[in-house]
Amino acid sequence: MEQEIKSVFELQQQHKFDLRKTDVKARMSKLKMLKSALEDSEEEIYAALEKDLRKSRFETAVTELFFTYAEIDHAIKKLATWMRPKSVSKTMSNIFADNKIYYEPKGVCLIIAPWNYPFQLMMSPLISAIAAGNCVVLKPSELSNATAGVINKIISQTFDKKEIACFEGGVDVSTELLKLPFDHIFFTGSTAIGKVVMAAAAKNLTSVTLELGGKSPAIIDNSADLKKAAEKIAWGKLVNAGQTCIAPDYVLIDEKLEIEFVEYFKTSTEKMFFNASEINKDVFGKIINQKQFQRLNDLIIKSVKDGAEIEWGGETDEKDLTLKPTILTSVTAENPIMQEEIFGPILPILTYKTLQQAIDFVNSKDKPLALYIFSNDSKNKDKILNETSSGGTCVNDVLVHISNPNLPFGGVNSSGVGSCHGIFGFKNFSHERAVMFQSKLGITSMIYPPYNDKMGLL
Ligand code: NAD
């Protein structure tokens, strides 16, 4: 594998000079080629996601396939505008010059993807990389290996490996890839491995986009529509069995509203994810593997030992890797459930007496990937927005801010570096090159030596 990786990397290093010459038409036709290859493989994609994560057909359609198609269509529509050099304003010293920003491809890029939305999270950066005119090496997650296999098949049948290549495998393959001096690395995964990737990239001064995780809070104030908030949080928490990077990780709620919220959350969950009193496995996904299943179980046990109470759920079905939606109450900041990203269908509820306490709590933690605000009070919304930081924020909803390609998607500090989607993805895979076309009337010579009597010009 090591030799194969090196030889593909060499091929791409040579080919990148041809690719950088490609115009809008050529890149558009590549994006169309990708879309049509994906459309032809839809059945295999549905089957792979069902196998890896027990994703229902509808969920795969909405969160993986159509999401990807929308990203391709958006890139095709906007590509000419994105690629066009942008004129910028002049200053006195370059008043006669033409000042422009050119968007040049970074060159040979590496994309490493996680297992939770294993298709979409590989395709979305790939679309941006193609739009920006790059050669690309893909490394899907070994934990969602059915999807990894389908991606590899589609890519190898559609593109020459000197342009786009895919290497399946785990840490060993990633580690080999990370030794190479890529022109850019786009990594989606955990914060811990993000640090490994950034350290490896630093050795070659390779630029990085890091799409990481963390604990995304949902703050509910006393003006919120509680029923709607509970329904939205239940969906956001439980879609893909909680294995979503921007899932609301925990709830911070006014202490007077906790009991009512819990009831609404249960009702909404039953309506969406249950058949009578049983989990409906046609719509509720499984935990990716035994290791993650055990981690979530242990987390509940440790949290309960530390004083948290299982308000609802907690039952498990090991054979099917299914963990019932679980609500934990009496949770303190020090409880084990609050020490790591949950990434499963467990919702801890923390209460506050004043909104300031909720804000201070969020600010005492790492900056989250997403922060959700449920409120109908403009002053409270502004207060939370002004006094906290997060990669993105959705007010009175969850997850859906990811669906607008005109908004940047990414984290801040420990939840990520850089952003993706639409023009933001295009820019992450491009070098913004400053170009000044000097005019014959240029006045630079005014500052050449000798300086004798020139101070008076300043
Ligand atoms: P992970 O960090 O364990 O793995 C991600 C990728 O890195 C995989 O392809 C894996 O093979 C590779 N990898 C693992 N260990 C490595 C190492 N030591 N060196 C080099 N490469 C290594 O993450 P995961 O478990 O696949 O995904 C879950 C995490 O990803 C969660 O934290 C979640 O929040 C985050 N995530 C973030 C986003 C986002 O858009 N910000 C999206 C999805 C998931």
Task: Please give a structural write-up.
- By secondary structure, the chain is α/β, with parallel strands linked by helices.
- It contains 14 helices and 20 strands.
- The protein has helices spanning 2-19, 24-40, 42-53, 57-83, 120-131, 145-158, 171-178, 191-203, 226-238, 258-273, 290-305, 355-363, 378-387, 422-428; strands at residues 86-87, 98-105, 108-112, 135-139, 164-166, 184-188, 207-211, 216-220, 248-254, 274-275, 278-279, 309-312, 316-317, 322-323, 326-329, 346-352, 370-374, 392-395, 416-417, 430-437.
- It has a 7-stranded mixed sheet, with helices on both faces.
- Helix 5 packs across helix 14 and helix 9 crosses helix 10.
- It is globular.
- The structure holds nicotinamide-adenine-dinucleotide.
- Residues 112-116, 121, 139, 141-142, 170-171, 174-175, 178, 188-190, 193, 196, 211-213, 245, 341, 343, 369, 411, 416 line the site of nicotinamide-adenine-dinucleotide (NAD).
- Nicotinamide-adenine-dinucleotide (NAD) is lined by residues 112-116, 121, 139, 141-142, 170-171, 174-175, 178, 188-190, 193, 196, 211-213, 245, 341, 343, 369, 411, 416.
- InterPro entries: Ald_DH/histidinol_DH (IPR016161), Ald_DH_C (IPR016163), Ald_DH_CS_CYS (IPR016160), Ald_DH_CS_GLU (IPR029510), Ald_DH_N (IPR016162), Aldehyde_DH_dom (IPR015590), Aldehyde_DH_NAD(P) (IPR012394).
- Keywords: NAD, Oxidoreductase.
- Belongs to the aldehyde dehydrogenase family.
- This is Aldehyde dehydrogenase.
Features:
458 residues, alpha/beta, seven-stranded mixed sheet, six-stranded mixed sheet, 42% helix, binds nicotinamide-adenine-dinucleotide, NAD, Ald_DH_CS_GLU, Ald_DH/histidinol_DH, Aldehyde_DH_NAD(P)
